[in-house]
Structure formats: C-alpha cells, structure tokens
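Postdoc handover notes: sequence design on the structure in folder B. Input tokens:
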C-alpha cells in the first residue's frame, strides 16, 4: 500500500474539517470548532488494483493574524486550498495562502470552492476563472454538508497522484 499526504489549507471557517469529516466518516456537524495546529485523518481507497491511503492533514485556518506554517507541507503529495463561496474575502485569503505554499512546494494544488449548498456571495466570471485556472491542477465546487463533489474531489486527487511516485510512502 502507498500513502499520499494531502494538506487542506484555507482561512478559518471555510470548511476544511467538514470536508475531511464528510469524506472519511460520511458525516457533517453543524457545530463549528476551530482547529488548532493540525489533525491527521486517514482513508484507504482502491485505485487500479492498488490500495492508496490518503493521509489528510487538516491544518488550522490561516488568517491575517496567523503566520503560514510551511513545515506542514513537507512531504505533501498535494494540497487543497479551500475557500467559502459565502465569504468573498476567503477567495483572496486562499490565493494568498496558495502563493505562500508555492514558495515551499510545487506539488499539485487543488481549489475547492466549498459551501455550494448556500447562496453564493461571489462567483467567478470568465476572466477571473481564466486567470485562476492555471494556478490549480484541479478545481471543485463542494458542499461538506450535502457531500456534493466531496468524494469525487478526493478520488480525482488520488487518481492525479497515482502515477506520481514522488512523495510515495510505502507501507
């Protein structure tokens, strides 16, 4: 079995923990608890007759009062920038975090626009999307609450990484 480390990054309250809980346990909790430091969850999936254990690093929310912790990205096979479509500022914060992450790693970056079950405070127009698309290897519109696109996102990331032997941890 191989292991792939995937880090979830984003501002506080965008739904990083909820995405992990939905994927790993199939549950959603309305109660908001701030993550402190990092919490690691694991889930084994099967790809092309190969068992892959995704090690999901749910990293505390980054905001303007926090310093980005590059050390959490060491050994990451990919990272997900999670933004909240109900908070316009979360997109700018996500792009800022992505810029900082790129200083530490060039592993695949995924954009997850979360909370698509709620009315959007912002939408990307064609020009904005065209400018963001090259920054990310994959992008998804997700809902941790309903589960929409959550499983598909993590499976697509695993498939993207499956052929990438860099940062494999064999057990």
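Designed sequence:
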């Amino acid at each position: 079995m191989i292991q792939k480390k995937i880090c979830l990054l984003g501002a506080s309250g965008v739904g990083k923990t909820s995405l992990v809980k939905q994927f790993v346990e199939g549950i959603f909790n309305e109660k908001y608890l701030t993550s402190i430091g990092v919490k690691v969850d694991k889930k084994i999936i099967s790809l092309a007759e190969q068992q892959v254990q995704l090690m999901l690093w749910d990293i505390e929310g980054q905001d303007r009062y926090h310093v980005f912790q590059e050390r959490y990205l060491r050994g990451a096979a990919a990272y997900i920038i999670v933004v909240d479509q109900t908070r316009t500022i979360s997109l700018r914060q996500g792009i800022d975090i992505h810029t900082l992450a790129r200083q530490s790693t060039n592993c695949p970056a995924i954009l997850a626009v979360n909370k698509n079950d709620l009315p959007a405070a912002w939408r990307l127009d064609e020009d904005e999307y065209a400018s963001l698309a090259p920054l990310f290897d994959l992008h998804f519109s997700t809902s941790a609450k309903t589960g929409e696109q959550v499983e598909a996102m993590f499976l697509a990331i695993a498939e993207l990484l499956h052929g990438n032997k860099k940062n494999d941890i064999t057990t």
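Context for whoever picks this up: The chain has one domain: 2-170. Don't rerun without checking with the PI first.
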